[in-house]
Specification:
By secondary structure, the protein is of the alpha+beta class. It is globular, with a radius of gyration of 18 Å. It has one domain: NADH Oxidase (3-Layer(aba) Sandwich), CATH 3.40.109.10. It contains eight helices and four strands; from the N terminus they run ααβαααβαβαβα.
Length: 223
């Protein structure tokens, strides 16, 4: 598979087949991703991968914590900025509506939408999950490098026939996850990643998010 194909076909996979990749397959994937760009070669990422009973423990923990407080725990790094402005807010809302349309869950079925959203904290049924850990002392540049690492993981997953879904939603459980994984005092979970073989028969995996036209995001000068 060439890079252009991997970029074009990658989606946020939200339904998976049950079989997990082997430990050797995961190690090979992570080893390959170590070639991701990293300013100053700082490599400001660390990952924790869970499957089987270890994944089940995290899922159970999330269910227990969110049952009493669906909004999660306080964080000084929210998923989106407060009062997200246009056109970004419209794009965010649009992809949500596209997802529920694919699932056949109408706007008035609030219970159905909430039930589907809860699948985030079950890794959408993926057989394995990954958590990206970053040191809180890192600057905005290193957060960008960690994003490059995540993109590299996604493209390498496509090459392997796997699907991925980046899940910043786990950020509302950072204190709990920090304790659960025994992170260092300055470490935090940035996001989760659900991964495994996609269930191509599930309607949610027909969703292909829209992207802004080139003229909205690019300026070519001096050509």
């Amino acid at each position: 598979m060439d890079v252009s194909t991997a970029v074009d076909q990658r989606i946020s996979t939200r339904a998976f087949l049950p079989d997990a990749p082997s430990a050797d397959e995961v190690k090979a994937w992570l080893t390959a991703a170590q070639r991701a760009p990293s300013g100053g070669n700082t490599q400001p990422w660390r990952v924790i991968v869970v499957t089987g009973e270890e994944k089940d423990k995290v899922v159970q923990l999330a269910q227990e914590k969110l049952a009493g407080n669906p909004r999660g725990e306080p964080t000084d790094r929210p998923i989106y900025p407060k009062d997200l402005w246009e056109p970004h807010e419209a794009r965010r809302r649009r992809v949500g509506e596209m997802m529920y349309e694919a699932l056949g869950i109408p706007r008035e079925d609030r219970a159905g939408r909430l039930a589907w959203f809860a699948n985030n904290y079950r890794f959408f049924g993926a057989p394995a999950g990954l958590f990206l850990v970053i040191d809180e002392r890192m600057g905005h540049g290193q957060w960008g490098h960690a994003g490059m690492y995540l993109q590299t993981l996604a493209l390498l997953a496509e090459e392997r026939g796997w699907g991925t879904c980046f899940q910043e939603c786990w950020g509302i459980l950072r204190p709990t996850l920090k304790e659960h994984f025994g992170l260092a005092p300055t470490e935090m979970i940035w996001c989760g990643v659900a991964f495994g073989k996609p269930d191509k028969t599930h309607p949610v995996n027909t969703l292909r998010a829209e992207r802004a036209p080139l003229e909205e995001i690019a300026e070519l000068r001096g050509f």
